[in-house]
Structure formats: C-alpha cells, structure tokens
C-alpha cells in the first residue's frame, strides 16, 4: 500500500502545481491591459508600482509567498494531518473568492478548484489510513 500512497501524493502534488497555474492565469488575464490608473483605483497601486502586471505570488494582503508556509515535520502522520488541514483551508479560500466575484467564468474555475480540494482531502485521508496501517505493522509506535 505504501507504494500506492507515494503515487497518490505525487499525483496530488502535481495537480496542486496545476492549480497554481490556473490561479496565476486567471489573475494575469484579469489584469492584462488594465491601465495604471485603474489599478490604483481598485487598491492595486502598490502592486502595480513594484510589479506592473507581472505575476508575483502573494496573499490577499500582498504578503509574498515563502517556503516557510510549507509545514513538514518528517513524521508522515503529522504531515498528512497538516495536508488535510491545508486542503480545507484552500477549499474555504475558494469559497470566499467565489463570493467576491460576479464573473461566471472565474466562478466556474474557482468551483472546479474547490471541488478538487475536496477530492484531495478525501485522498489524503486514504493516505493517512494507509500510512497508519503501515506504521502499525512496523511497530513504529
């Protein structure tokens, strides 16, 4: 089962990188060609000043992404619990973003991503069960 779990985790990680690409593409398309004055009017003047319309990974408050956000202890059970929590946080964030937009295309993309986070949560749960069974057989605890 552990071999299957490794494959599952690889698949989820690959899909999460694709999610980043989808969000980056949405933002790029939504801001492409927007004049500086409009960026300033909607509260993105500081972003425009430093990045123009370039993609720059930051949260809703402009705090840049950092590898410090990755939670890893080296304990597979603790790390899978962290992954489960991260999927729920992502699902909630997508729901909040859906509430903030009136663009049907953006809503559709966000709904798709939200649904995938639910699936990932379920799959991480399966992985957790497999790892706990494996660890129990190895008498690690």
From TrEMBL:
Domain of life of the source: Bacteria
InterPro entries (alphabetical): Ferritin-like, Ferritin-like_SF, Mn_catalase
Gene3D superfamilies: 1.20.1260.10
Coiled-coil zones: none
UniProt family annotation: Belongs to the manganese catalase family.
Protein name: Manganese catalase family protein
Organism this protein belongs to: Heliobacterium chlorum
Lineage: Bacteria, Bacillati, Bacillota, Clostridia, Eubacteriales
């Amino acid at each position: 089962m552990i071999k299957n779990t490794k494959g599952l985790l690889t698949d989820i990680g690959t899909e999460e990188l694709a999610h980043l690409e989808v969000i980056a593409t949405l933002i790029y398309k939504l801001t492409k060609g927007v004049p500086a004055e409009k960026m300033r009017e909607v509260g993105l003047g500081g972003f425009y000043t430093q990045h123009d319309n370039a993609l720059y990974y930051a949260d809703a408050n402009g705090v840049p992404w950092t590898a410090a956000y990755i939670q890893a202890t080296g304990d597979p059970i603790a790390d899978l619990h962290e992954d489960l929590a991260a999927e729920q946080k992502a699902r909630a964030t997508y729901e909040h973003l859906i509430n903030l937009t009136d663009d049907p295309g953006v809503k559709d993309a966000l709904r798709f991503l939200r649904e995938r986070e639910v699936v990932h949560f379920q799959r991480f749960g399966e992985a957790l069960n497999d790892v706990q069974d494996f660890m129990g057989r190895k008498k690690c605890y």
